[in-house]
Amino acid sequence: MNSNRKSIQSFKIVQFMITIYRQRMTRILLPLAVLAFIIWEAGRELKGFNLARILHELRRMDATFLIEIGLFSLVAVAAMSAYDYVIRHHFKFQIKPGVTFRYAWISNTFNNVFGFAGFTGAGLRTMLYKKNGVPLGVITSAVVFLSPVVITGLSLLAWGAIVHLYPVQPVLDAHPWLHWALWGMALYLPLFLILQRSKRYAKWFNKGEGRLSWSTISASIGASLLEWLLAGLTFAWIGSYLLHELPISAVFGIYVIAAIAGLISLAPGGVGAFDIIALLGLQLEGANPDRALAVLLVFRVFYFIIPWLIGLVLAALEMIPRNERLSQLAETGWDYSLNAWQKVWGWPGQFRFLADLGVWALGKLVLISGAVLLLSAATPGLLYRLRFAEHLLSLPVMRLSHEISVIIGIMLVVLSHGISLRIRRALRLTLILLLAGAIFTFIKGLDFEEALFLLFVALMLWISRSRFYRVSAPLNRHNILIWGGLSLLVTGAYFMIGAGSNTPFMRHLHAKVHLDFFMNRSDYGVTAVFSLILAWVFLTVYFFLRPQRVIGNLPDARELDKLKEFLERQGGNLVSHMLFLGDKYLYWTKDEQVVIPYARSRDKLVVLGDPLGSKERVNEAIQEFQRFADRYALTAVFYQASPEYLSIYHENGYRFFKLGEEALVPLESFTLTGKSNQALRSAKNRFDREGYSFEIIQPPLEPSLIEELRHISNIWLDGRKEKGYSLGWFKESYLQLAPIALLKDSEGKVIAFATMAPAYDHGQTVSIDLMRHLPDTPNGTMDYLFTRVIEWAKESGYMTFNLGMAPLSQVGQSEKALREEKLARLVFQYGGHFYGFQGLRRFKDKFKPQWEPRYLAYPASVFLPILTLELVYLVSKRSD
């Protein structure tokens, strides 16, 4: 059996599929495959549609009908809260009915827009109910209970299609595979009931307590039926209004089939699959293609978008007033339920979810505000409003307001990112733009609906202004490209909609109507280009050409003296001496009992080693430093973290990647005697016989010696650039701080040197730091130099000598290791061409050290490969 399995896995295609499965790439590949199919099908179906005629149909809709269908849609969405009332009763949640309804609205509307197999709704319910004190185990049981119930109502409606309560045969004949989908959905309900009544499987549905009561089952199925029935009636009502030739039963039947197709696609809200099947079904029933597409657009707006906007507002109001970390939310595993759509949309991560959710909602409201302004400017206004506005204002003022609205719309789209990041400066500008946008969109055509929406978003931001605490955020090339591309995209959409709709729209107007109100194609092009340039010029002036907001200053001589006194009093670690290079910032906690050295790399603050100071204060210091970084939208990571502090990092939400191991030689047991130390003993004896000498020079150093060492260093570098951050470099003031080991030839010429680095642990540990030698030194020079330095350290009373790191040593050894660690293991084994990983390990092993691991501590939200590249860049450059 095993041999057959191995032979099967030998095929590359099978290995590839196994890899895809193990890497969980199906989470991305399945939605992408469905999306590709939908785009291909949509491209075929939408070729014959006329955007202008569709907009014309939408503009003709009666205001009374819009109000009626809007209210009915809200009732249909509100009916989905029946699920939450069922689980509230069954699991005995101590939650008020009003709070239950609010949580249900947020969860259901977000799930409608972003839902991926129900993960969004399940995750949000978990977060919201847990916030209200419901135990996590009970919530999990409720979510598990709810998941299989949701589609039972659609299964009932599928039986209605099978028994011909509503006609669906044309669309089934056009796509035969829908027969299987219809029957599969119809059989789901009896299968659900059979499994629920089975003692073996009932525990899955009722948290291990056996079968559900018939009253609970009936209520659950009733809630599901109510959801799908009201959604279908909403669609059917819109269809019967716009498609007068179709009976409401036919439109309802098309909805049922399209809903099944959308559910199978797993796309958020059934986007694509639902729309294509519904569009095809309506046309097969004889509907005009443009009106059929108008039905879909109105349904999406009233059943999905408007309720979701209300959900955004409720989510914004649900924000936690303070910005504390909700570390317990990690238990829910929410981060793993996110799908590709949600990550692209910038969905909040698992930590501080509820606090982030509210600001995320505000950011998306601002984004939608910009889109509303652009869409309003691109589509033809109502003629009677335009005529009335012309009586009040001149046409040039209306045209100018139109152009300003476009500029403001583009800026709001870009600023929405700053709102999501809680930047105070972005909040102030956004409030001004929303107020201005409301004024100008009203002036250009009396579009009071858009103006009221913008004013409402401004009010929400004003109410939430205390939550915008960030001073600034990184403006890196990546963000500029993304938001520059997005602004270009929305501007292009404005031009395409405006230029493609206004000219055909005018054909529907009476011949006597004056066309001065409407712009031609070239006007839209000029407005689009001019607005895009002006918007970016303004944003550049506002954000880039402002006083530089620095996160700190590099330490001067006075602060370095303060650091030295602190280390002598509190103690340091193996990398503390490198802080005197002056290239790391020093973050002192408020009580100055802990100091954290760090450097900035893009949007990361990279701490070198562990925080310095009393270990009892380190946990609080890390949290304070995280808050400091968060004020600038930066992330704190810890480089070369020691095992002693891992539990503290873990408590603060960090993951770990093993960087390698540090070689620590116990000096008490160090000796050159014995067979295993023969190579070191022979090298020492040979250099002694040939007249080489070893000397330790204490600071201060003579200027002539400094120049001699500088000459050796320059020859050793051979034009290469000095590295920095975690590595020392040749700096005169730095060399004057600690002893230097010199190796001289028989003529007294210095051929190699090494600087010492105390660990500031009261004379217990010393490290070797900068090592340089001339290129023509004999073999074994480094063996001799290290041996003599270790002997000196032992004679000087030190207990431990630090030989430094062996990068990637003993990383990824276990089969259960992370994928990144296994990759690092391959680099260690086969990357000798670029860096002598194994050779360095073998060299340090000669001195019989004890190996102590070093780690990279990073938050779960950080993408490790990118962080690795940033660290490589940080170490490769030197700050003077």
UniProtKB/TrEMBL annotation:
Main location: membrane
Positions of the Phosphatidylglycerol lysyltransferase C-terminal domain: 566-858
Protein biosynthesis among keywords: no
TM region(s), chain numbering: 25-42, 63-83, 103-124, 136-165, 177-195, 216-238, 250-280, 292-317, 357-383, 404-420, 426-443, 450-468, 480-503, 524-545, 855-875
EC number(s) stated in the UniProt entry for this protein: 2.3.2.3
Family label: Belongs to the LPG synthase family.
Membrane topology: Multi-pass membrane protein
Name of the protein: Phosphatidylglycerol lysyltransferase
Pfam family, one: LPG_synthase_C
Localization (cell): Cell membrane
